[in-house]
Write a structure and sequence with these properties.
alpha/beta; about 550 residues
Length: about 550
């Protein structure tokens, strides 16, 4: 996979001179300024309808354009006739990604970098933030969310209709039964709640009211039915923001049997169900597009599709040939499935390898809408890049920084990626559908590449690492252009590149906000609210 991101020079360090390091910095500065100046805004004739679709836990190898054994014809048709984004990055977990998506901010700057918001967490997305639906609403858009929230609900103030959405049809938590809408925190107890047994609770709302009239419909089709009714009830001349974060394909593994039948050749039962879930998601996405067309919304629409993180191999997601999975900072956890589809695109049928980060969608979509975005977002307007006008103005990014328990961080500059500290499990997992005798290529949590720092730059590197409470055995440097699978650690032979990137990380640490990670508050147990997950306890 070839990246079109501007690269750092290849440096083979033999001395402690920092001339090369200064040259790298100067080159990066010039390129970044030039890219920004080149970003002439590409506009559309009138504010388009914006449909932002988020798949949950969809892995790199869980779609047909990366894996021909997967059946996703609707999604692939949309991607192939739009702009396919092959270097679109997300966070390795759902709450951090959704926080970045709607705020335009790196999660480590707003306290949302550590794990997720658990069922009894008395916290939520910072209320001082102006988030995307609020900006679009101020620009005259009607704003709707259909699906998963997962940005806090302990107080009504954290919930969607008090955060800029006109309507909400969906659920608050990370996941639930696809038919009954029952969310059980038992899955999370060992993580946050110790030995106390918690209650099952119903979790589904229409705006602020409990919604219990769906008659056990499989959730992707429940959501599309609601979208169809929503679209048919409104004037397509009025601009609309539809945020559609599907439940699919998050655990539990559930799908109508008809969707697993095309995968009868897959011997791994859980993988067979997972692929059926992917195909059901694909059908639901196709139904949404059909509804846009039949109601007159499609011709002036922009559809953005992205996953929220890499696929979890523990629940049969797959990211082959990328390394790692959901929750890890390796590419398998962070390089996401994404595309843009729109009849307004001047360059349909494009495959882009430009660097895009989830924080960029706020500036990009606000720009399309003629809305004002906060000045302190971490994103850039990528519409000129998506439409092929200019290279990406983004030449670097932060994967994440988390110093809550063990230090964990990853940064990108040009084609280089540096991991510092604990990146998470870093295996390579072949897809189960290809062979019954799967061999997972394992590696340890840290020091997976037998790295041993040598050279005269070691003292400077150790000084920088001391600031992060880590050491040189926890450094990994990869050239993602030549090595997208992250197999060859270059840290010991490219010390000056490591130094430049560590100094960039040090600068970013000045913006670090400790994680808002709260212990369980049992006041939120659904047994206190007639077995319904309900706000109003924090």
């Amino acid at each position: 996979m070839m990246s079109t991101v501007t690269s750092l020079p290849v440096i083979h360090c033999t001395s402690t001179t920092y001339t090369a390091m200064a040259a790298v910095k100067e080159q990066l500065l010039v390129l970044m300024v030039s890219a920004v100046l080149a970003s002439v805004v590409t506009t559309v004739s009138s504010p388009p309808h914006i449909i932002l679709i988020v798949a949950d836990d969809l892995g790199w190898n869980d779609v047909s354009w990366h894996n021909p054994l997967v059946q996703t014809p609707h999604l692939e048709a949309l991607a192939r006739s739009g702009v396919l984004l092959e270097q679109s990055y997300v966070l390795p977990l759902c709450t951090p990604t959704r926080s970045a998506l709607l705020s335009g901010r790196y999660p480590f700057t707003i306290g949302r970098q550590h794990l997720v918001i658990w069922p009894l967490s008395p916290s939520g997305l910072d209320l001082d933030l102006t988030i995307l639906p609020q900006s679009l609403k101020s620009a005259g858009y009607s704003t709707h969310i259909v699906g998963k929230w997962h940005l806090g609900f302990c107080s009504w103030q954290y919930t969607p209709t008090l955060r800029g959405f006109d309507t909400f049809y969906g659920y608050y938590q990370a996941g639930e039964d696809y038919y009954s809408r029952i969310c059980s925190p038992r899955y999370f107890e060992d993580v946050i709640c110790g030995d106390k047994k918690l209650s099952y609770g119903y979790d589904f709302r229409r705006n602020t009211d409990v919604e219990d009239t769906d008659n056990g419909t499989y959730s992707p089709f429940l959501f599309t039915s609601y979208v169809e009714n929503l679209l048919s009830s409104r004037n397509p001349d009025d601009p609309m923001f539809l945020y559609l974060p599907f439940q699919s394909v998050h655990a539990p593994l559930q799908v109508p049997e008809e969707y697993t039948e095309p995968y009868s050749f897959v011997k791994d039962e859980n993988r067979r169900i997972k692929l059926g879930m992917v195909s059901a998601l694909d059908e639901a996405a196709g139904q949404v597009v059909d509804a846009l067309k039949t109601t007159g919304h499609y011709d002036n629409s922009v559809i953005v599709f992205t996953t929220d993180n890499g696929g979890p191999t523990a629940s049969s997601g797959n990211n082959w040939p990328l390394r790692g999975n959901k929750s890890s900072l390796f590419e398998g956890g962070t390089r996401g499935i994404a595309f843009v589809h729109s009849p307004l695109l001047p360059n349909p049928g494009t495959v882009s390898h430009q660097l895009i980060h989830v924080t960029d969608w706020y500036q990009t979509l606000a720009g399309l809408a003629g809305a004002e975005a906060p000045t302190n977002t971490d994103g850039v307007d990528q519409w000129p890049t998506i439409t092929g006008s200019v290279p990406s103005p983004r030449t670097d990014m932060i994967y994440n920084i988390d110093n809550t328990t063990k230090f964990s961080a990853a940064v990108r500059m040009g084609e280089y990626k540096l991991l510092v500290g604990e990146p998470g499990w870093g295996e390579w997992t072949p897809p189960p559908e290809n062979d019954t005798d799967i061999v997972v290529e394992e590696s340890s949590h840290i020091n997976t590449d037998n790295h041993k720092m040598v050279g005269e730059g070691k003292e400077r590197i150790q000084h920088l690492l001391h600031l992060f409470n880590t050491n040189d055995t926890e450094l990994k440097l990869y050239d993602l252009t030549e090595d997208p699978e992250e197999r060859v650690n270059l840290a010991d032979i490219m010390e000056e590149v490591v130094i430049v990137m560590l100094e960039f990380l040090e600068q970013q640490m000045s913006r670090y906000v400790p994680a808002d990670y709260q212990p369980c508050d049992y006041d939120g147990d659904p047994i206190n609210f007639d077995n319904v997950w309900t706000p109003g306890w924090c």
